[in-house]
Amino acid sequence: MISDTDLEHKVRASVSDLHMRIPVEAILDNARRRRRSRRIMLSATAVVGCAAVALAAIGLTATHETARTAKAQLAAFTLSGGPGGSASLTLHKGAQYRLDPDALRRALAEHGIPALVTVGTSCDTNPEPDGLDRVVTASRQSSGDVFITINPGAIPAGAELSIGYFSSHTRYSLIEQKAPKTCSA
Question: Are the C-beta atoms of 172 and 162 separated by less than 8 Å?
Answer without folding.
Answer: yes
